[in-house]
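Message: A physicist's question: would you kindly supply an amino acid chain plus fold tokens?
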Amino acid sequence: MSTIPAFQSALTGMQSLNQNSFKIANAQSSGDLTEPLVNMMIDKLQVQASSKVIEASSDMIGSLLDITV
């Protein structure tokens, strides 16, 4: 079981989170912040889901090592 896609997904989510936070920080006072804020919530969920996949993979590998030892 490879965790590489989970790491890539977490990285993508964090990069998108950074881009959206930059958009918010540089928005004019009349700018619409709805889209970047919604995207930040989506990015947060993406990173959380990826971290759960990585955690589950780590737990499975640990269990397999316990069985073979």
